[in-house]
Amino acid sequence: MKTDIEIAQSTQMQHIADIARTAGVDEEYLEFYGKYKAKIDYRLLQEGKAPNGKLILVTAINPTPAGEGKTTTTVGLADGMRRLGKNALVALREPSLGPVFGVKGGAAGGGYAQVVPMEDINLHFTGDFHAIGAANNLLAAMLDNHIQQGNALGIDVKRITWKRCVDMNDRQLRNVIDGLGGRMQGVPREDGFDITVASEVMAVLCLASSITDLKERLSRIIVGYTYDEKPVTAGDLKAAGAMAALLKDALKPNLVQTLEGTPAFIHGGPFANIAHGCNSVMATRMALKLGDYAVTEAGFGADLGAEKFLDIKCRMAGLTPDAVVLVATVRALKHHGGASKAELNQEDLAALERGLPNLLRHVENITQVYGLPCVVAINRFPTDTEAELKLVEDQCRALGVNVALSEVWAKGGEGGIALAEEVIRLCEAENHFRFAYELEQPIEDKLAAIVKKVYHGDGVVLTPAAKKQVKQLTELGCGDLPICMAKTQYSFSDDQSLLGAPDGFTVTVRNIKVSAGAGFLVALTGDIMTMPGLPKVPAAEKIDVDENGKITGLF
């Protein structure tokens, strides 16, 4: 059996100019990055017809070691829709180097439902993340330089909130002391690093609608507080213009292709467990402008990625999804039901029945909390039995939701036709889209709404420090911002060991910080970290390149 990278490398790609023609992009908007990648000038969004395609969100159950295949399903669904004669485009996030070299591996789909060139997409791509890291770290450098040069703004070095970043899982950098070495080497202080995908600059880029909007958002970023408790912004440090100059090309969406030649925009990459988990607004709008259907995905389970897509991205960008695809595997559901990884290939209806509530809770959230049409896509494995598949189908039908088998990993677009047909039907179905909370609600009420409505917990508990932050943020005028929950992806709760559909729990918020440029509040729960670490055996140990430049071991 071929690996993902072997399948990708054996496929003859089309020149990106041909893919652009398929997408309806005139060459005047193209900036070529070799033969198979291009950036699209954002002027395209300002000219011609307004975006009016149907928006399809692909989300999933809570992830397990058994895998779900959300990106694979997204790609295969779009390929399946095109096989049915529909003008469908893909809009995805860019992979971070952290997971690529860590535990998760690549993020370009799998099997015969991939975006290519998968090696480039997973490694550096067009340099967007490096630009974001440079802009983030320029702001950090200008902040420390301001303090070194006399600190005219009166910044309290004990209340600096801005961190440096690097796009790598490097736990060693979580907490550092810098500025050592004498008076001319800077002001010694405690500091730290986030992974680039957790940087507010990433969120700003993904939510910006233009260069002007980008600059305005960058200028609002709060980097710390003065001795008299006033916020200090990137605008106060006169950093926004230079940061925008570093980001001007990174703001342009990237165009690539699926294995079957479907145009795919891949742009931006915030994690969904510690950031808002969606690709850029500009890429999504381009897909909607050029296609009759835009298929996009949001990170991790629907309690994280879909919640943030709907409550943050759609709210800010004025988007309304037309249909939602909820991806699950029988194997993952059995894992949620208590089956060990070694037992997942065996029929186990009892474990499946115990794990099914995880899927059904996500389905209920999409249809009842958010009022959206939904279909469950079962990413089929060869070991799935007919009895297991029927059990899933029967339970979903009881909630009024259809189930479609997805075999896109093995068959590409052909294996996604049944799912595509159901999605096309759903796009014309009744739609009562609404948010899980209203912005006017107090911060604690919005937190409670997410926990009770989406996680199905009993409520939210704020630590004394978090309560103080809520009071300060409300006084600063930030109380009407949406909430970006930083929470484990493995459970509805903030305890990753509580699989399935737990109840009777509370979620503890230990820290709330404002991302004023992005336009949301980040609530950190449990032991979630903004800088992951590498596993005992990193994926990087298996990656290599030969003398001809051919990469191996990349997923």
Quick synopsis:
This protein has 555 residues and is of the alpha/beta class. Helix content is 35%, strand content 20%. Strands 1, 2, 3, 4, 5, 6, 14, 15, 16, 17, 18 and 19 form a twelve-stranded mixed β-sheet that branches. A four-stranded mixed β-sheet has the order 20-22-23-21.
Note down, in words, how this protein is organized.
With about 550 residues, this protein is of the alpha/beta class. α14 runs parallel beside α15. The longest helix has 21 residues, at about 130-150. The radius of gyration is 23 Å and the shape is globular. The mean pLDDT is about 95.
Portion in helices: 25-40%
- The rough form would be described as globular
Structural class: alpha/beta
Q: Tally the beta strands.
A: 25
Radius of gyration, in Å, reads 23 Å
Number of helices: 19
